[in-house]
Amino acid sequence: MFQEPEGYFQPEPEPKVEVFERKKECVESGTPASIKVNLLGSHPLWGHYLWNAAKIFANYLDERKDLVRGKSVVEFGAAGALPSLISACNGAAKVVITDYPDPDLVGNIRDNVRCNFPDKLADGSVVVEGFKWGTEMEKIASLAGPAGTFDVLVLSDLVFNHTEHTALLNSCKYLITKPGGGGAGSEPRGGEAFVFFTHHRPWLAEKDMEFIQRAQDEFGFEVERVVEEYVGPMFEEDPGDERVRGTVHGFRLSLPRPS
Predict the structure, then answer these.
(1) How far is 149 from 248, CA to CA, in rounded Å?
(2) CA atoms 15, 21, 26, 29: torsion sign
């Protein structure tokens, strides 16, 4: 029998923990000054990192608490789920956190909620659910409450999945609260989808931006840029322009009111 050389089989990376320190001026009485984010050691769907876009969006929400306070929130592809945890911290009435229906991913998210806000997990104001974009949207809608739609949609560092743009946009259009009309799933202003991301592969930046362009041209969303902030690249050794790899972009999508 042949024996593999010592060190041939590399051990699986250990799970890790990152602590997100909130800005002091954003911490209200009775809320935590930091959020503990458990991360898997590795995962093929990149759910084992706390991405820069999630941190910047968490700060964005923390500085604009009224975006989520008393509202329903759903996050797609949540990984560590930091924006959802900040939404729960800032008084969202309902937070539905989703990721690909993989037991490790979903279990880790549930652990993060239990670690930071166990009462909210227990009373059902925060729910964790597997969700493959573009499928079983009725199941996710049923978790929003009677309206069946969400006031705030969170998409953090997902647009690099170019083959999934259609499924993501279909999910957004189906699950977002519609403006006007007064019927079920309708509010005068309508819901908002926030799309934050970095061009991790600068040579594919145009492909990333096709998500925003298609949201406007094909799916009828109004688009507003709300953030463009350089924070440094996630991985120093990666190829491509460092400035591009280190900049977080944020867009707000909403549906126009019916005329």
Answers:
(1) 28
(2) positive
CA distance to 9, 90, 145, per residue, from 215 (Å): 45, 28, 26
Look at residues 89, 56, 96, 52 and name the one whose alpha carbon lies nearest to residue 73. 96
CA distance 75 to 95: 8
Q: Contacts for 185-188 with beta carbons within 8 Å, 24 or more apart?
A: 185/147, 185/148, 185/149, 186/147, 187/151, 188/257
pTM of the model: 0.91
Distance CA 79, CA 65 (A): 22
Residue 63 — φ and ψ, nearest 5°?
Answer: -85, -10
* Tens digits of residue pLDDT in 105-164: 999 999 999 999 999 999 999 999 999 999 999 999 999 989 999 999 999 999 999 999
